[in-house]
Amino acid sequence: MAILERTDRDRVAHLRMNAPEKLNALSDAMLAELQAAFDTLREDRDIRVVVLSGSGKAFCAGHDLKEMQAGRQAEDGGAAYFADLFARCSRVMEAIRTLPQPVIAQPHGIATAAGCQLVATCDMAIAAEGTRFGVNGVNIGLFCSTPMVALSRNIPRKQAFEMLTTGDFIDTDRAIALGLINRAVPHDQLEQAVQDLATTVAGKLSAAVRIGKEAFYRQVEMPVTEAYAYTGQVMVENMMLRDTDEGIRAFIEKRKPDWQE
Prior knowledge:
About 50% of the residues lie in helices and about 15% in strands. It is α/β, with parallel strands linked by helices. A 6-stranded mixed beta sheet has the order 1-2-3-4-6-8, with helices on both faces. A two-stranded parallel sheet has the order 5-7.
């Protein structure tokens, strides 16, 4: 049984974490499989959108605490292992952010600690109603510092800090209000709702979406004047594409564009 399953449908790659007995924890093996999958998808021009989900009763419960405790047995008390672990996890999160294709999270059940980080890192998220989100490490004496990076870039600072310091869960209504997820649907409608969103995005000009995703994350960290200068050049790059010219002509002529990509 594969710990990470991939199925492709209508130019959408579905990645399903498949370790339900561990609540799809980000074990060493899971991180390696996710990294390999994203590295492969980066070069796959046939795939327009990626969906990330989990099997069993939870989306992802964060890091594998039993593996982490085993890492303490090293002579240095686990310092080298922990440094490597969090570096590998950060690379996976960065791989999602820099992937040319938009990534949609499909959480259900719970998304805790690094599992909540995954949701915050993905470009969009549709959750099953009743899903709970938390950065709960503080409850066991481990502040969720790396999950904080994605969380604090998704939701307002005071609310993020409250979640990080209390270890409390939030529900889907609160997650929507804060901007952690786009929306929530009944569990039996989750897969279709995500597929509908993925299909809509996959139907756009992929070159424009790739350019736009990169620009989105670069400009959001810039001062406004610098951001406008940068995105102006991005618009020029986009306008020079053959398929963009075709898209504009088709709109003016009231017909469907004949995109080559």
